[in-house]
Amino acid sequence: MTYMEPSREIPVIAQVDVLVLGSGPAGMGASIWAARSGADVMLVEQSGDVGGISTVGLMSHWTGRTVGGFYEEILERSADIPEASEDYGFNGSPRQLINPERLKTVYLEMLKEAGVRLRLYTFASDVIMEENRIKGVILESKSGREAVMAKVVIDCTGDGDIAARAGAEYVKGRESDGAMQPASIMFKVGGVDYSRAIFPGGFEQKVQVPAGEIQALGRENLPSPAGHVLLYRSTLPGVVTCNMTNCIGIDGTDADDLAKATFLCREQMEPIIKFLRAYAPGYENCYLLSSASLIGVRETRHFAGVETITEQDIQEARIFEDWVVTKAHFNFDVHNMTGNGLDATGSQETFKQVKGYTIPYGCLVPKTIDGLLLAGRNISGTHMAHANYRVMPICANMGQAAGIAAALAAKDGILPRDVNVKRIQEILRQNGVEP
Could you give the dihedral angle defined by the CA atoms of residues 60, 65, 71 and 74, in that order, rounded to the nearest 10 degrees? Predict the structure, then answer.
């Protein structure tokens, strides 16, 4: 059955140089740096807070890294360093721990300083096209159905919802079978005795506790597909962030699947807390303190770009001539798509490339759609490469590059694909980004 919607006039509420969709780290970088580069910018976010997974998703820390650029600025302004020793934080860096409430405010301050127009509680639902060029976006909110026209649109929605509606080519998940990484809901527990607590930070990090090895105990005692134990310090005394819920076999672009994943992950929280009380030293009196209101979807669409970054490019620490993100470093963090823990294709402790790699501008430019840029986990890359570049520090610097490129395109009245990359690189170099 279908319903034929009557035609109607939609008010155009703004005409901007750059329209950014999604306010995660990529969207923050894109909107702030487009505005700093002289563009009139609007940022649209469907939730009531900015920051995406870094705030609403209750992410524990900035995992992975880059050197210089917007990510470093975020750390400088938002780090909430506790009075503790150097080894207190994540990988020996308390600066990488996230206080999501502080980060929300810092983000808003940065947007205000840059002069970005912000629309919260607003969903980007459709596109306005002229042949293969995006000219604007349809918005839905309590204010009704509205349109914003833009010279350049940057899709930072993670799933690439607007890029898909514009007709940009993509594949979902792994090239061989379409399988996608599982989803999780982060949550925090209070009442932890830090003097005795354990903090296993990776799937392969094995910690001996009185009852045995903690990862093995998790696999034996937690409800499948949960089973791994990942516990991270926070900036608050006695509070630990848990990355232990797990839902496999779902499509993060499907609303029914998202509801299914939310139910499953929330059902796992009570058994996880009981497990921690029973087996994890220091957690005997822990209790649920808060949980994310945004589910963590790791992988959906990979768009076809002018260029595509591959696993081999990362392994070789390749420096592309048209680099716009540099010194990116993480590992092949492929969560098990049939259970818990690390997938057989993943590589954490065995990942040995320490130099960092670059991401070329062509990965941010869709192959066939004009007036559009991508930033975040939806850029043009293979499934395995995505497992490395999808993390927030790298996405933040992708956004920075996309914002600069969009501002240059809007100012010169050209398409994003025609921007001289040397001009983007010159601005990035002036702000501490070097290959």
Answer: 40
Residue 186 and residue 292 in contact, taking contact as beta carbons nearer than 8 Å: yes
Q: How many folded domains does the chain comprise?
A: 2
Of 105, 119, 185, 120, which Cα lies nearest the Cα of 150? Answer: 119
Helices and strands (DSSP H and E) totals, the chain: 10, 19
Amino acid, res. 9:
E
Instruction: Determine the angle formed by the axes of helices 421-430 and 392-412, rounding to 10 degrees.
Output: 120
For residues 162 and 31, membership in a common domain is answered with: yes
| Residue 341 token pair | 């823990």
Same domain for 316 and 280? no
User: Which pLDDT tens digit goes with each residue over 293-323?
Assistant: 999 999 999 999 999 999 999 999 999 999 9
* pTM of the predicted protein model: 0.97
What is the extent of the structural domain holding 214? 183-297
Residue 424 near residue 361 (C-beta atoms within 8 A) = yes
Is the previous residue joined to 225 through a cis bond, with omega within 30 degrees of 0?
Answer: yes
What's the rounded Cα separation, in Å, for the pair 113 and 36? 9
Give the model confidence (pLDDT) of 275-290 as tens digits: 999 999 999 999 999 9
DSSP designation for 7: P
In this predicted structure, what is the pLDDT of residue 283? 98
Rounded (to 5) percent helix, strand, coil in the chain: 30, 25, 45
Domain boundary among 254, 275, 297: 297
Task: For residue 78, give the nearest of 48, 41, 104, 113 by alpha carbon.
Answer: 104
Distant-in-sequence, close-in-space partners of 430: CB < 8 Å, separation ≥ 6 = none
Residue 150 within any structural domain of the chain: yes
Distance of alpha carbon 371 from alpha carbon 401, whole angstroms: 15
